[in-house]
Amino acid sequence: MKGTLIVIAKEPVPGRVKTRLQSEFTAQEAAALARASLVDTLGAVLAARASRRVLALEGDPGPWLPAGFTVAGQRGDGLDERIAAAFEDAYDGSPMLLVGMDTPQLRPELLGFQWSGYDAVLGLTEDGGYWCLGLRTPDRRALVGVPMSTDHTGRDQLQRLQDLGLRVLMLPTLRDMDTPRDAAYLAAEFPSLRVSRLYRRLQHAAHPGLLFEQALGGTARVVATGIDGRTVPALSELDRWTAPADEVDRLALSRCEGPVLDIGCGPGRIVTALAERGIPALGVDVSPRAVSLTTSRGAAALHRPVQDRLPGEGRWGSVLLMDGNIGIGGDPVDLLRRCAELVRPDGLVLVEVDPNDDLDDTAPIVLRSSTGRRSTPLPWARVGTRAVLRYARRADLHPTEDWRAGHRAFLALRRTPVPHPTPSTQPAQPARTA
């Protein structure tokens, strides 16, 4: 087209862009996808025929901005006012077409229409909005007051243009990228886009903590597998983790001596059950969501890795490693040594072990989400009774009890007493004199 092309965009800052993507991606990942989408859009606009190109930007330009654009800061309160201002600030006497940053599949040829016979241009999106708006001259009446970010914004905008007596050229409807499902669609239909390549990389490189948070929040079903893809059953029982303590849990807790520290407390069913028994207890977990769920139940929990400094070190009556948490970090000896540091000299370390007594698998695991994401390898260990007994000896812990209940198995360990030299029963020899 002959005239000015305007891209209206936000600086891709984590937490400020693409927040709806954060149901499956971190704020940093969502911002990276937004940046890739913006770069794709700027590239298409740069390749299109135009007499001038303007970026109407909220925020600051970064290295993602190619040469060939004039940058103008956005002004106005709502999006309707900011779009109207972008037309006013970019106007140089020629027609203008404004596009957003959310349709990276935009191709230069789509912008090569002819203005002849038309006063305005509009391209709708599948979710009810619009991806582009063109005006021959700035006119605030065409924009201010049109409801933005609704499922009828596009229809309302078209009606406003027609009410002003403008002849409107309709461009093809596109799908914009607002949700994870939109991102998946774009990656499948337009695989060569920068945003599509990034999406595919992110799908196979999720942080394990993010998928665990999604599972706890109920936004996705998550299973644990080995690197080979085989499911790890003991680590995929989220329904049990989020439910109240059951009979087997309560049987294990009957061995506890307070106060109790629950390592990897998850959503807090164990800490809650202990509190209901009147036993002082604290949960620790690296998941903010898990800690929030625990405290919402009225129990105490701390957001902290077990290897960091913890309250009451060396004074806990019992330390718990339930639900296979002996696997945390992938090094059972290191974890058991840490537990021995945390309990008092006569304290108890209660470990839920794998029902397979001979299992000794310290290979990493992978979390896989029902949304299609896969985590990076997570250091973990799956160990049965015999392996834990070997590891316990190296951590100066000795077994006092092992038992099974249902399909679950447990070990009770205590710190190994440090031998003290016994007084000699032989009479003392007189000191020799010279």
From TrEMBL:
Family annotation (InterPro entries): Nucleotide-diphossugar_trans (IPR029044), SAM-dependent_MTases_sf (IPR029063), Trfase_1_rSAM/seldom-assoc (IPR018641)
Entries under CDD domains matching the protein: AdoMet_MTases
Start and end residues of each stretch annotated as Disordered: 415-434
Taxonomic superkingdom: Bacteria
Signal peptide: none
SUPFAM superfamilies: Nucleotide-diphospho-sugar transferases (SSF53448), S-adenosyl-L-methionine-dependent methyltransferases (SSF53335)
Matching PANTHER family: GLYCOSYLTRANSFERASE, SLL1095 PROTEIN
Protein name: Glycosyltransferase A (GT-A) superfamily protein (DUF2064 family)
Organism: Kribbella rubisoli
